[in-house]
Design goal:
Elements (H helix, E strand, L loop, with lengths): L11 H6 L34 H20 L12 H4 L24 H11 L3 H18 L2 H17 L3 H18 L4 H21 L3 H18 L2 H17 L3 H18 L2 H17 L3 H17 L3 H17 L3 H17 L3 H17 L3 H16 L8 H18 L3 H15 L5 H17 L3 H15 L7 H24 L3 H17 L3 H17 L3 H22 L4 H16 L3 H23 L12 H10 L2 E10 L14 E8 L5 E7 L8 H10 L5 H12 L4 H7 L3 E5 L13 E2 L2 E2 H4 L1 E4 L3 H5 L1
Parallel strand pairs: 1-4, 4-7
Antiparallel strand pairs: 1-2, 2-3, 5-6
Length: 772
């Protein structure tokens, strides 16, 4: 049996599999990037006046929303599903910020009018609150009560913000500043305090207007005043807001410093809730800078603080974030361990929604790692939670249906087609009465995929056409509805294209794939785009047009590299696309292009590592160009010998069954810049089969190595011996694929000498490693 680390040689089965692999994936997998601002609401800072509590809450609200924007650029792909359980429900405002709890009175002052405006504010009657505040302004102006007048103007600004009347809010805050200037004449301390809080609020408005530089200027002015007055709690909140703005401005190091200062002050004040929130934000910024160990350390601190506060729900949320971060860092075992702890904490807190979230995250990690049975187990636990949940949990029938869709998809990917069909049927019984076109379309597409794999093309066509019909009936009320609809249409059209391909209707298949690409692009579904592009390439290969396969494969590789970088791991579709590209270019007589593809694949781990070191919002460095490769050989008077193992694609791919022939490909880059390409079967007279190759590699490193080195030299050196001799270089750099990296190349016999005797020899995993 061939060990699993041998390259996966393409077969007709594998080419067919490429068309149906990801039909259930909507968008980039969640939990690629840690979500931001998800743990707890910042409590209202205790203030003495009737409006300051609300103002402080709103200012902190502006800041926490901005941290979310700063950290969540990739989280648009990643993070939005996580963490809403402990933070309270967001309202419908574009800049939701933090909610006052129903027991908090933002207008805690004297008189019937202040009582009335407080109740109006808490009831959401902002227009009524504004009318009452205008009466208060008139009253305090008449009385020349500068303290209350400043607070009334701040109240007007607060309400105008809730109405999204930003210019009016700024005018109100400016009137408050003028009032506090007047107050400075008789009570400098109160005047400065009011001025500082007003400046903080103005910073919040400019944050909402997406003018972070202006916002930061107001916060810095407020910070000076708070420090002068010794207002530690206000200083800490302002530092947190500044940290959020630094995140928006792509200044994470400054943001970390601000949050660290805020954290120290919150600890000094014993404000556990603010400590928890600050740790949350701080971990995000560390992750953005690529300092994953520091981010992990901060999250673990959050877990400890929450546990000491006897708050298992918040501890579970921190652990859920920790699982996301470990997933990002390419550490699935650590992620699973974090999710295990998170689930236990959520159960302890009887936080059903959070436990449900953790189980689905846990299942996703296991599914991505190929542990389908483990993923099914976690989804089943989540299903049990939903089935036993109280009505307050939500639409449990729909949740059950969606979980069954995930379970069925895993059965499908595992080849358990009967179990997949039965599970889809169960889900359909739950979903159909709900009249949810999107979910019903998913189910019908899943049934179509199963029928297609079973060879029942007529039944598959019926299911897929029904799926398209339901998906086109989706009611579009928000942009998210349109995106979801286009994603689902793209996935169904992709599968329909595969069906037409199976039927030999190639033109119709291509048109359908193009429609799928358009829908996936409109739906911003990168995974779907990558799959469809690859399927278009396979269609070209089946028609004997390998040259036409290169462009969609290159575009697919760009997408999969981006997703690999964001996910922190090399994805199987990317590896397969690279291999298919090299085979297509060789078949199209474009060996230099195939070398570029092989080097791009080989250098990816190094490029990803460089990108990660720059932070998760960076992009990996670009691969080498052909000119760069030539310059390396020319500039160092070196001969580069690049080995790769791939598959020869016959002209009639559609008529071939079984595995295709594995090939050893060798590119020799001469000191002149010339590139010589040779290809031969990997197995032949010298090395007869995979088991023999592995035995020779192992034997070449131990006793009796000479017996193994001779056939390895016949395989690896004999095809290029004359080329090396004519190159005129005394230095050779060998770039072998992972399977062949353990061979002692310096000891391979070359004529009466060894390769190491004749040349100064180096071995590198990729040409890019020579540059870096």
């Amino acid at each position: 049996m061939v060990p699993s680390f041998l390259p996966p040689f393409f077969s007709v089965t594998s080419l067919r599999w490429l068309r149906t692999r990801s039909q259930f994936v909507v968008g980039v997998a969640s939990a690629l990037v840690p979500s931001v601002g998800l743990l707890v609401s910042v409590p209202v800072v205790a203030q003495a006046s009737w409006v300051e509590a609300a103002l402080a809450s709103e200012v902190v609200a502006q800041g926490t929303q901005d941290v979310g924007e700063a950290g969540g650029e990739a989280g648009g792909e990643a993070g939005g599903e996580t963490g809403g359980e402990t933070g309270g429900e967001a309202d419908d405002r574009p800049d939701p910020g933090l909610e006052l709890s129903p027991t908090d009175d933002p207008f805690d002052g004297n008189g019937g009018l202040s009582d009335r405006v407080s109740q109006q504010y808490l009831d959401g009657d902002f227009a009524g609150a504004l009318t009452t505040l205008e009466q208060l302004v008139t009253t305090y102006q008449t009385q020349q009560d500068w303290v209350q007048l400043g607070e009334a103007w701040n109240g007007v600004g607060l309400v105008q913000e809730r109405l999204e009347e930003w210019d009016a809010a700024l005018l109100a805050y400016q009137s408050a500043l003028e009032t506090y200037t007047q107050l400075n004449l008789t009570d400098p301390e109160q005047g400065k305090l009011g001025e500082a809080r007003t400046l903080n609020n103005m910073g919040g408005v400019y944050t909402s207007l997406e003018q972070p530089t202006a916002a930061l200027g107001f916060l810095e002015r407020a910070l000076v005043l708070f420090r002068e007055l010794g207002k530690v709690e206000e200083e800490a909140i302002t530092l947190s807001n500044a940290g959020a703005l630094y995140g928006i401005m792509n200044r994470p190091a400054d943001g970390i410093q601000a949050f660290q200062q805020a954290l120290a002050l919150h600890k000094q004040q014993g404000n556990v809730d603010q400590v928890i929130v600050t740790l949350d934000r701080l971990s995000t910024l560390y992750a953005q800078t690529g300092a994953v160990p520091e981010a992990v350390r901060i999250l673990e601190q959050g877990v400890t603080v929450a546990q000491e506060a006897e708050d298992p729900a918040t501890a579970a949320a921190f652990l859920s974030r920790l699982g996301e971060l470990q997933t990002l860092a390419g550490q699935p075992p650590a992620a699973i361990a974090a999710y295990e702890r998170a689930f236990a904490a959520a159960q302890s807190a009887e936080a059903v929604a959070l436990a449900f979230q953790v189980l689905t995250q846990w299942a996703a990690v296991q599914a991505d790692g190929g542990d389908r049975s483990g993923a099914i187990s976690q989804y089943q636990k989540a299903l049990d939670l939903v089935q036993n949940a109280s009505p307050e949990f939500g639409d449990t029938a729909l949740d059950q249906g969606q979980l069954l869709i995930q379970i069925a998809a895993l059965y499908y990917e595992d080849g358990q087609l009967e179990a997949a069909q039965q599970t889809y049927d169960r889900a359909l019984i739950l979903v159909q009465p709900l009249d949810v076109p999107l979910a019903e379309g998913q189910l019908l597409r899943g049934l179509g995929a199963v029928a297609l794999e079973q060879g029942n093309l007529d039944q598959a066509l019926t299911y897929l056409e029904q799926a398209l019909e339901r998906q086109r009936q989706v009611s579009i009320t928000e942009e998210s509805d349109r995106l979801a609809q286009q994603q689902e249409l793209g996935l169904t059209l992709n599968l329909l294209g595969a069906l037409y391909q199976d039927q030999g209707e190639y033109d119709r298949a291509l048109t359908t794939y193009q429609e799928a690409m358009e829908a996936q692009t409109q739906g911003q579904n990168l995974v779907g785009q990558g799959d469809t592009l690859r399927n278009m390439a396979v269609l070209s290969l089946i028609q004997g047009k390998p040259g036409e396969a290169a462009t969609p494969l290159l575009n697919a590789i760009d997408i999969w590299e981006f997703i690999s970088f964001r996910s922190g791991s090399l994805l199987d579709p990317l590896v397969e696309a690279y291999q298919l590209l090299q085979s297509a270019l060789v078949a199209a007589n474009q060996p230099e292009g195939a070398l570029l593809g092989a080097e791009q694949q080989r250098s990816l781990p190094y490029r990803l590592q460089q990108g990660w070191q720059q932070g998760i919002q960076a992009l990996p460095p670009s691969p080498l160009t052909l000119d760069s490769i030539r310059q390396i050989a020319q500039g160092n008077n070196t001969t580069l010998v690049f080995y790769d193992i791939g598959t020869r694609l016959p002209a009639n791919v559609a008529e071939v069954s079984g595995e295709l022939t594995p090939q050893l490909r060798i590119w020799t880059v001469l000191p002149t810049g010339e590139i010589v390409f040779t290809e031969q079967p990997l197995f032949g007279e010298a090395v007869t089969n995979p088991d023999t190759l592995l035995e020779l590699i192992e034997s070449s490193l131990g006793e009796g190595a000479s017996a193994a080195l001779t056939p390895l030299a016949a395989l690896l050196l004999a095809p290029i011996e004359q080329t090396l001799a004519e190159a005129g270089s005394t230095t050779v750099v060998v770039i072998p694929p992972p399977l062949l990296q353990g061979i002692p190349y310096d000891q391979l016999p070359l004529g009466t000498e060894t390769l190491g005797d004749r040349y100064t020899l180096e071995v590198a995993p990729a040409i890019q490693a020579l540059v870096n």
